[in-house]
Structure formats: structure tokens, C-alpha cells
Amino acid sequence: MKNSFPRYSKYALGLFVFVLAFSLIYWAGGGNFLRPAGVEAKITQETIPLDKANPHVQAVMAVQNRHTPDLMDMPEVVGTATGLNEAGRPAILVFTKNPVEAGVIPRRLEGVPVVVKVTGEIVAMPRKPKPDKPAKDRVDPTARFDRPVPIGVSTGNEGECSAGTIGARVKDGSGNVYALSNNHVYALENCDCIDSNVLQPGLYDTGCVSSDTDVIGTLSDFEPIVFSTSASNTIDAAIALLSSMDNHLGNSTPSDGYGTPKSTTVGAEEVFIGLPVQKYGRTSSLTKGTIDAINMTVNVGYGSGTARFVNQIAVYSRKPFIKPGDSGSLLVTDPGRDPVGLLFAGNVNGKYGIANPIHAVLNSFGVTIDGEQEL
Asked: Residues 154, 285: contact at Cβ < 8 Å?
């Protein structure tokens, strides 16, 4: 009997250690026995991109689309999109002009979290009241450039004293070469001016005085913008046929930019939330940000009125990403330089930029990016 208690104590201690180890393994697996801790999170965050093919993103977009008409009817709401909440999970984003009282916008819709972002109004950005002066050691994108002109610099139509940005050099199947920018830069918000001269720099940057030596091409085509908050615009884009394919426009940014965009583009279904991007524009030169939201429906203010756009891309940066005059800039990946979209609008502080998916732009005109070929 004297040895019985020590023997049973050892058995009890061994059983306790086994149960404790079992419990730790169970809870580390999130409640499922022998499931490795963290595996699910790694699959979700590292191997399944948050693009339109992601089933979680698809589910949120479906809910967003169902509730967008009601949300957009609210006076303070300027847009909706699919993005992420603070926990990094797919959520419905609602963009507002000003802060709204608690409860006005639901915190959840059909179980999906809703995040309110106060951006102010979203507006097209064809020019800036007072041009920024670049640092002495930097290129001035508002200047007149020797031919061939780089992309990412000042341009405009002879019919208006304004300036935007040359986004890219594009080409069609017949060998014609064009400069790509926005409708509101080259077609002046649906002007009846096909074959009008397109300039570099834009008239705003020459004191509103035109010169034949500034002509780089003529307006060839544009996608009309429907100015209505019930419209479903998809692009704000135009192309100008170059006067001289060999001498007037290059396909690379100035030396302080990202260089030559790739000819292979990122498809609309492949753009994912969190994708690092960059652009080079007439006013703010090279800036970098990330894709903050996809499937965006947004009301954009123009001189001719307000136009609603659907299926847009929202870019966010902690510093101003887009400024007036940057309209028409090409959005590319960082790094990689794969074209993602065509920038055309932003909010007042410039931290949010709005872009058309580049495939929608190129398909509208039957052109491709005349850029660096993949090896």
C-alpha cells in the first residue's frame, strides 16, 4: 500500500500532461483537431488574391450592387465600392461628401460590414488654377518637350485653355499610332470637334497662346460621357491620331518617371484590392498608391454636369496621388509597369484617384498599348 499512491500519482500526472497537450493542439487549430494553426489565414491572404474571381469578393460585390441604388440616393453619398474593413476582410465601402450621423448608413448590409469613407466630392481634373513649380532638379511636365514627346506630360485641345496629361502611346491593327488621354482633356466633354488639333503642351501651360509647333496630332475618337446620375458610364477617354508616327510622341515617361509601360495589361478581373500602383502626370509627376477598392460606382463632377460611372477602380495614397492637370495619366503596377487603368478624377485633397479599367478603354477604340514587349 505504501507504493500505491506514488504510482497512481504518476499516472494522474501523465494523464494531465496528455490532456493539456491535446487541448493546446485543439485550440491552436481553431477548434478543429490537428488543423495547423494559421493555414486558413495564409490561404486566404497569400494565395487567393482579392480580385473579382475571389468568392468572398464576389459575394460582397453582389450585396453592394443590390444596395447601391438606395445608397446613392442619399444626398451625402458620392460612391460605393468593394474594399476591405479594418480587419482586412472584404466590405462595402461608402464614400461621402461629409461626415454622416451614426445610423444613417447601416453598419452591415445582409451581414456584410459597411465602411464609410469621407472623401468629399469626386471631380474630373483637367487643369490646375496655378501650376506647381517643380524643384530645380526635376523635370517640368508642364513644359514644351522636344519631339518625340514623352508620355505623362501636359497636353490639351486647341479649343480650350486647359491642360491634362498624355497617358500612353497606343496603336491599332492598321499601324496607326495615337496619343491616349481623357474625353474631358481631348474632346472637351463631348465637343463636336473631331479632327481638331491636339497640343503639347496644353494651352493652359502656354498662357493660352497656341502655336503650330505645339501640334502633335488631331482628335480621332472619343467615348461620349452621359451627364446623368442615372447613367452607367464606364470610361472617360479619347485618342488623337499623331501627325507624325515617328517623331511626335515617344512611349516612355520623362527621366524622373517609371519609364516605359509594358504592352501587356492587367485585366479588369485581375485587379485586386491592395495592388501597388503608380502614375506619372502633368502636375504631380510620379506618385504611388494602392488599389483601395474595385467595382466602384461613383458620381463625378464636370463643368457640363455630374456623370455617374460604374465598375471603376479607386486608388488611395497617404500623400496626394492625383491633382488637377493629372487627368489622363496611365495607372501602372509598381513594380512591373503593367497598365491597370486610365485616371480621370479624384477627390479634393487628391488622396483618392479614380481610374477606368484599361481594358475597357483599349477595347472601346480597338487599340493596344504601344509599350515594352514581354520577353
From this structure: no
Residues in the chain: 375
Backbone angles phi, psi at 66, to 5 degrees: -65, -35
Sequential DSSP letters for 275-318:
-EEEEEETTTEEEEEEEEEEEEEEEEEETTEEEEEEEEEEEE-S
Residue 171 parent element (H or E): strand 168-171
Q: Is 116 helix (H, G, I), strand (E, B) or coil?
A: strand
Rounded Cα distance between 333 and 288, Å, is 9
As a whole number, mean pLDDT of residues 243-266 equals 91
Domains of the chain: 4-46 (no CATH), 48-118 (3.30.300.50)
Closest by alpha carbon to 356, among 324, 375, 333, 331? 331
Omega of the bond prior to 335 within 30 degrees of 0, cis? yes
**Mean pLDDT for the stretch of residues 124-152:** 77
**Could you give the CA distance from residue 29 to residue 26 in angstroms, rounded to a whole number?**
5
**Do residues 19 and 12 touch, judged by C-beta distance below 8 A?**
no
Query: In the block, which residue shows the cell 490532456?
Result: 19
- Comparing 2-16, 239-253, 341-355, 358-372, the range with the smallest average pLDDT is 2-16
Q: Give the separation between CA 206 and CA 227, rounded to whole angstroms.
A: 30
Query: Hey, what's the cell of 40?
Result: 486558413
How far, in Å, CA of 247 to CA of 153, rounded? 16
CA separation for the pair 119, 81 (Å, rounded): 13
**Single pTM value for the model:** 0.86
Return the half-sphere exposure (C-beta side, CA atoms, 13 A cut-off) of residue 221: 14
Check whether 375 has a pLDDT greater than 90.
no
